[in-house]
Structure formats: C-alpha cells, structure tokens
Design brief:
- The protein is 65% helix and 0% strand.
- It has 88 residues and is mostly helical.
- The protein has helices at 6-22, 28-44, 50-72.
C-alpha cells in the first residue's frame, strides 16, 4: 500500500512546505510538520492500516499547528506598547 511508505509522506511534507512558502500564513506548515513526523514514525515502525495512519497524521498536524500558534502568536494579537521610557 502506497500510503504506508515513509518516502511518500516525506514527499508530501516537502510539497506542503513548498506550498507554505508560496502561500504564507502558517496553514500548510502544520500539515507539513505532521507529514514529516509521520514519515519518521513509518520509517521506524511500519503501520499497515490506512485509517490509523490518517488518524496519526491528523493528530500530529493538530499538535504542530497548536505549537506554531503558541510560538508565532495569535492572528489578532496586538503588539506590546511600552508606557514608560527606559531613560525616565
């Protein structure tokens, strides 16, 4: 089965990362990280069940998206405004 081969998921990760460069916004980057981590998992432990592979991919992509949201900030966040000067 082609979906259980690690290099297919690594190719998908590279394609999604390239798409993220073309269309910025941290949308495809979470999926790219999920696919890359899944490729590493499939390289170590072969999984034959397609539904299980897709559930793992979805969970890894969600975790990657939430981690990037925490690192890069929320879309509506305002920048920090300093009330006093350091020289005062």
């Amino acid at each position: 089965m082609l979906a259980s081969v690690w290099w297919v998921w690594l190719s998908a990760a590279l394609a999604l990362a390239t798409l993220e460069v073309i269309v910025p916004g941290y949308i495809f980057l979470g999926f790219a990280v999920g696919a890359a981590v899944l490729a590493l998992i499939l390289l170590i432990v072969p999984i034959g069940s397609l539904p299980l592979i897709l559930v793992i991919f979805a969970a890894l992509s969600l975790v990657a998206y939430l981690a990037m949201r925490r690192v890069f900030g929320l879309p509506g966040e305002k920048p920090k405004v300093w009330d006093r000067d350091i020289n005062d």
